[in-house]
Amino acid sequence: MTGHNLIIRDYLHSSGQAKYFNTTTRNIVVALLLVILILLRIEHHPIPLLLSTTVDNSETHALETHKDSIKGNQIAELKKLSLFSAETADASDNPYRVGYLAADDPLLFHAPPSNLAARVVGILSSSIHEKSITIIEQNKYQSSYSQGEKMPENNAVVIKIFDDRVIINHQGYYESLLLD
């Protein structure tokens, strides 16, 4: 800090202001200047509100223009594609949502087939459903699961094991894996 003090002292002497600044004041000024320089190196816009005082509505205008250019039949065609692995466009109408059916509901037996790349190769059924075991093959690797266990490859959870099918919770919906 002494090098900075010499530069500032020489500047103040040359401009005739040395009598107004003592050593403590010079040290405070140097410290403040260093803090400002450090802040400017860290954050290029320390006061962003002062840099842009105008409101930019170009993004919202572009969104409105794009929304107006989409036709109704194009939206219907996109919904038919089911791009995001949702079985139905209106998820609220699907009775197989988790939370809509209880785990012991008889309708659960009729859950729609799953699209997962997994298949049931064996079931050891028990009169006590909690003690039933299923063998599921995924990526040519077989693992055994009981109720409540998570399948690591696809984050599905085994909900109930019947004699010929396994009901899983996959992405918030009940789906069935049938025994081959």
From TrEMBL:
A Pfam short name: T2SSC
Q: Does the keyword Repeat apply?
A: no
- UniProt GO cellular component terms: plasma membrane
Tell where it localizes. Cell inner membrane
Sorted UniProt keywords: Cell inner membrane, Cell membrane, Membrane, Protein transport, Transmembrane, Transmembrane helix, Transport
Q: Tell me the leader sequence span.
A: none
Principal localization reads membrane
What residue intervals traverse the membrane? 20-40
For the Type II secretion system protein GspC N-terminal domain, which residue ranges apply? 49-179
Q: Transmembrane helix: present as a keyword of the record?
A: yes
Q: List, in alphabetical order, the GO biological process terms annotated in this UniProt record.
A: protein transport
Q: What is this protein called?
A: General secretion pathway protein C
